[in-house]
Design goal:
The protein has 16 helices and 27 strands. It is α/β, with parallel strands linked by helices and about 550 residues long. Among the domains are: about 30-185, Rossmann fold (3-Layer(aba) Sandwich), CATH 3.40.50; about 440-535, GMP Synthetase, Chain A, domain 3 (2-Layer Sandwich), CATH 3.30.300. The chain starts with a helix and ends with a helix.
């Protein structure tokens, strides 16, 4: 009890003393990356076959300046959108920083998107440039007229390999550019900087617009939650296409002078444990799904003496996983809660006792409450909506080009996250669930609409509904209830065919891992699918 009170007292003091100090003007590349000593370690990259690259801040600064010059010479500048669709390779960091220096609107995208996903993002954003790899270049070319705005197509090809027809090799283009900072633009903290596309309950993905101030605010995620110190090595296992990469592999750690680890390989629990020993990070951040798989391995011989902080986010982490990891390593995994729309909002912080299963306490600089339908904070123990008061600098500006969706997130002076929770007497938040039908699986956010749309494209499907079904490793999986046309017969073969169809039609992680064929779908009197009833079926 004394330890808890001491920890809560430290948190209260930190919250009381915190003041937002967002510099203006601000540009992450100019004001963060360029300010460190050139030789200071910035990035440790490891390839799937064991190949390795180490980059200092000086090389990141120089190469990102070349990117800024290239974009300027191509006529790409402030107000123009650029799609960055690269895997976990150093060029992702270089292009991201360079594009921000150029003042463009940067759109990070996952490399597992399908042509339909790419077409929507290109058309919605009117992006004028794209940077990707040969594999994804083929998919971009398949989009055709829907990506007509992409006038500049830059490709990160293997050394010595020719880029696809119609594409420019990025390395060749950068070699002819100046390495000085004269192409950097002065950007205001409130200027548009980033757009992340995130799945919603209905319709296509929403475009989450962040300002340059957001890239500064992410330092507080790393400072308060990660527990990053200058000179640390930080390994966050996120894919570069997601907002998690913003706080884990670029903006947060680099703001504090840490070196980040980037592993370009598929997840394998034994390999990951081995790399924890080899690469010796001080801070390790992985999604709950990975921790669940790691604790199933034999951890008795694991030796990680340099590891100081372990954190996880994306979905609630099982208390038994926290206990198993602590028993093996002596370290407690500290849960955190944030959104694509924000920096970290609620977390378990270093030096403060963790209540296993709890989301933790609000991030300094934020007033966060559990509120009712009228926007009134609820007393401890009552279920309500997690809401953020006002518009702190780490919160998104808007759903780009969708004022109606933006307005729906506000309840008076509150931003309503869409998640529900309770709060206990000590102030800890406890996650209850989404207040909509978005599916969170292995940390991925999946909109049922996208899965259902892909399913009904199949000639045998009349109707479909997608919901979350519990899963011990992923937290939840996508389960689809499918109504077939007359003459089509349910079978395991057809279920497999539908799964493969969804993988081809949209990003593969969205496919339904379980399919149940039904005669009809439960609906409201107005014809809306009652997904809540389907979820109850399990």
């Amino acid at each position: 009890m004394a330890e808890l009170e001491a920890g809560l007292d430290r948190w209260r003091r930190a919250a009381d003393e915190f003041r937002w100090e967002i510099p203006d003007p601000f540009n992450f590349g100019r004001d963060v990356v360029d300010q460190f000593p050139p030789e200071q370690p910035a990035l440790l990259w490891r390839g799937g076959e064991g190949s390795e690259r180490r980059l200092g801040f000086g090389e990141i600064a120089e190469q990102s300046n070349r990117v800024a010059h290239l974009l300027k010479n191509l006529g790409v500048g402030p107000g123009d959108a650029i799609i960055v669709m690269l895997p976990r390779i150093p060029e992702w960091h270089i292009v991201m920083v360079g594009a921000l220096k150029a003042g463009t609107l940067v759109i990070p995208c996952s490399t597992i998107l399908r042509p339909k996903d790419i077409a929507y993002r290109a058309e919605h954003s009117a992006a004028v440039a794209v940077v990707t790899t040969p594999d994804q270049a083929v998919l971009v070319d398949q989009v055709g007229a829907e990506a007509a705005s992409l006038r500049h197509r830059l490709c990160v090809a293997s050394p010595g390999a020719a880029p696809p027809d119609g594409w420019t090799d990025l390395a060749t283009a950068l070699a002819s550019q100046a390495a000085d900072s004269s192409a950097s633009r002065e950007t205001r903290a409130a200027d548009p900087a980033l757009v992340y596309y995130t799945s919603g309950t209905t319709g296509p993905p929403k475009a989450v617009l962040h300002a340059h101030g957001y890239t500064f605010a992410q330092r507080y995620t790393s400072e308060f939650w990660h527990g990053v110190r200058a000179g640390d090595r930080v390994w966050t296992t996120s894919d570069t296409g997601w907002a998690k990469a913003a706080y884990g592999v670029i903006f947060g750690p680099w703001s504090l002078g840490a070196e980040v680890v980037l592993l370009d390989a598929r997840f394998d629990p034994r390999t990951e444990l081995s790399l924890l020993e080899q690469l010796a990070p001080q801070v390790f951040c992985a999604p709950p799904t990975e921790f669940r798989m790691l604790v199933k391995e034999n951890l008795s011989g694991l030796s990680v003496p340099q590891l100081r902080e372990c954190v996880s986010a994306g979905e609630p982490l099982n208390p038994e996983v926290i206990r198993a990891w602590r028993d093996a390593t002596g370290l407690t995994i500290r849960d955190g809660y944030g959104q694509t729309e924000s920096i970290l909002l609620v977390a378990n912080y270093p030096g403060i006792p963790v209540r296993p299963g709890s989301m933790g306490l609000p991030m300094p600089g934020h007033r966060i409450e559990v509120i009712d339908a009228a926007g009134i904070p609820l007393p401890p123990g009552e279920v309500g909506d997690i809401a953020v008061h006002g518009s702190p600098p780490g919160l998104f500006r808007e759903y780009w080009k969708d004022p109606a969706a933006t307005e729906k997130t506000r309840r008076g002076e509150w931003y309503v996250t869409g998640d529900r929770a309770t709060r206990d007497e000590a102030g800890y938040f406890w996650f209850v669930g989404r207040d909509d039908d978005v599916i969170i699986s292995a940390g991925y956010r999946i909109g049922p609409f996208e899965v259902e749309s892909a399913l009904v494209e199949h000639s045998d499907v009349v109707e479909a509904a997608a919901v979350a079904a519990p899963d011990p490793d992923r937290g939840a999986i996508v389960k689809a209830f499918v109504v077939l046309r007359d003459g089509a017969s349910p079978s395991d073969e057809l279920a497999g065919e539908l799964q493969e169809h969804v993988k081809r039609s949209t990003a593969p992680y969205k496919y339904p891992r379980a399919i149940e064929f039904v005669a009809d779908l439960p609906k409201t009197v107005s014809g809306k699918i009652r997904r809540v009833e389907l979820r109850a079926r399990g």
